[in-house]
């Protein structure tokens, strides 16, 4: 269930970004930077899932 919360948190952050004045500014002035920000806002939802991490040991 924690994994789903991670994805929900990502969606919340992305929605806030896309609705921000900063996003509007970047669209006009530096659209390539948007991809970098979106990548940073998307935290790996599996990172906190210990069962997924333990399968790599």
Average pLDDT confidence is 81
H-E order: HHHH
Terminal Cα span? 22 Å
**Beta-strand content:** under 5%
Would you give an account of this structure?
The protein has one domain (2-46). The protein has 4 helices and no strands. The protein has helices at 2-18, 21-29, 31-41, 50-54. It is elongated and about 35 Å long. The relative contact order is 0.20. The mean pLDDT is 81.
Features of this protein?
single chain; 57 residues; mainly alpha; 4 helices; 74% helix
Q: Could you give the topology of this structure?
A:
Elements: H1 2-18, H2 21-29, H3 31-41, H4 50-54
In short:
The protein is mostly helical and 57 residues long. The protein has four helices and no strands.
């Amino acid at each position: 269930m924690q994994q789903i919360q991670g994805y929900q948190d990502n969606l919340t952050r992305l929605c806030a970004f896309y609705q921000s004045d900063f996003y509007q500014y970047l669209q006009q002035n530096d659209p390539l930077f948007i991809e970098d920000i979106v990548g940073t806002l998307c935290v790996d939802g599996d990172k906190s899932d210990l069962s997924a991490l333990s399968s790599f040991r």
